[in-house]
Amino acid sequence: MAAKQGIVPVWFFVGVILFIYGILILITGIAEFHHPPETVQLSQYHAPLWWGMVLTVFGGLYVFLFRPKKPKDVQA
Amino acid sequence: MSGINMYAMAIVMKVVLGWDINFSIWVAAITVAVYVSLGGLYSAVFNEVMQFFLIWFGALIIPVFGLMETGGWKGMVARIDQNVPQIFPPDAFPHVHGSFTHLWSGIGSFSANPMGIHWTGIVLGLGFVISFGYWTTDFLVVQRVLTAKDLRSAKLAPVIGAFFKMAVPFIVILPGLLGLALLNSGAHPVILHPENALQPGDHSFNEVLPIMLARYCGPGLLGLGITALLAGFMSGMAGEISAFTTVWTYDIYRSYIKKGAPDNHYVMMGRISTILGVLISIGTAYMVMHFKSIMDYVQALFSFFVAPLFGTVLIGMLWKRASPAGGFWGLLAGTLSSIGMWVFVKVNPANGAIIALSPNASDMAQNMYRALWSWIVCVSVTMLVSLVTRPKPVEELTGLVYGCTVLPSEGDLPIWKRPIFFAGIAIVVFLILQIIFW
User: If you average pLDDT over every residue of chain B, what do you get?
Assistant: First the structure.
């Protein structure tokens, strides 16, 4: 799982998937802000908005920290 | 275990997507079969890492929102106390007594807690035999430790796992408690039933997590929640099947049936055994339906296989006098005695009082005591047979038996970098949790 020469670390993929999910959930949260689904309990707290933000920030951080580096940047 | 994960995954599809349970089981099976047979152990472990994050981010929604709806822990407890007599009427659930929100205060007697168990069953059957057995003999767990880069990492893996394991009740047990507190009220009340007593249109105890998820999540978040649940079950299923494949291909087929074949041959055999493992899992997934809940089935399986195996591993690891014949006959006797005790109770449910030491013991309590007895049978037979058969020479036991192996020193590692330090913290956290939820 470690970042060896030529291997993209798994943490990068973790970041990518969380970032994509975060953006999608955030967009859903914005879209339903004024008209939340009636069947959902506690919809007044706008969970998709907050949870989407958390996922986007966390995923984005992982993408940045574990992005694949060029060969010259990787320590031998 | 793989079949259990497959069944749980199918339940999520059934509850949230409205799919037929049979169709859902096959969809779950084919998905995992494809990625494990193509990617092998590496793909299973790689996916496990990604799925770990999805599980936590997806499942945390339920306890957070559930506690907000009940008005915190005290509000939840008050609602549970109010709801329990309606959800578990005494005539249908004679074993359900006591508090659902305490760990130890009601287990001095079989009839003072909803699990219908005594503390000896929890401490010796579940805590000592089943739990220790799971952490040391379940190949899914052992295989992950074997892939560690060095001894320190291997030691640290279960210690780090212990921290997350202690947090798992917050995303598994707490949603169940919140279901008890909330599901039978509101605009669309849901009454839950045991899995083996379902009528068309009923919901079972096994469905609490997806039902709670649908309660708080609209389209976007629901997708994440479903992904989290599916990820968790798929991860478990893939891990078990890749473990099965490894044991069959490397430890049995290559070692005893066909030695010295080219690598391609073993890769093909691995893929065939993956498909075979999936088919066996499908069969076991259908067996879950005959038990009250998934947990009843899990603990019954653990008492059959994990408990005696833990006895064999423990004696083999710590006693150099243990012989191969002792291990074989001990394991066989332990497993058969456990299955025999289960049949004994199935034939006449009143016999459960003999196995679990009380007429008030629940099925779950019987699982715990059956595990304990089968472990004792295994250990006794292993020791007796070992004493009258020839042990292996000491030089062959190096690296396998505790007294015959020189453990590498951890050198001059500072104390706070040693596994024992983190294990100590885990024990302290564990004790604090016991006191908080006493």
Answer: 85
Give the three-state DSSP class for B392: coil
pTM of this prediction?
A: 0.80
CB contact under 8 A, A48 and B223: no
Which of A11, A29, A45 lies at the smallest CB-CB distance from B220?
A29
Q: B20-37 as b/e, with b when 16 or more CB fall inside 10 Å?
A: eeeebbebbbebbbebbb
Label each residue of B41-64 as H, E or C: HHHHHHHHHHHHHHHHHHHCHHHH
Is the ipTM higher than 0.85? The answer is: no
Three-state DSSP class for residue B311? helix
- Span between the terminal Cα atoms of chain A, in Å: 16
Top-confidence residue, B106 or B342: B342
Is CATH 3.40.50.1110 the classification given to domain B1-101+171-292?
no
Given an 8 Å threshold on Cβ–Cβ distance, is B224 in contact with A13? Answer: no
Share of chain A above pLDDT 70, in %: 84
A13–B65 C-beta distance less than 8 A = no
Instruction: Measure the CA–CA gap between B319 and B299, rounded to whole angstroms.
Output: 28
Kindly identify which residue of chain B lies nearest to residue A52, measuring between CA atoms: B221
Cβ within 8 Å of residue B386, ≥6 positions away: B315, B319, B321, B322, B323, B325, B326, B327
Angstrom distance (rounded) from CA B196 to CA B300? 15
Using the beta-carbon criterion (under 8 Å), do A28 and B227 form an inter-chain contact? no
Q: What is the rounded CA–CA span in Å between residue B376 and residue B103?
A: 26
- CA angle at residue B87 from B346 to B73, to 5 degrees? 115
Where along chain A do its domains lie? 10-65
- Cα B146 versus chain centre, distance: 20
Mean pLDDT of A2-26: 82
Q: Does A10 touch chain B (CB under 8 A)?
A: yes
Q: Which residues of B touch A (CB under 8 A)?
A: 45-46, 49-50, 53-54, 57, 61, 65, 68-69, 186, 214-221, 223-224, 227
CA angle B23, B29, B33 (to 5 degrees): 145
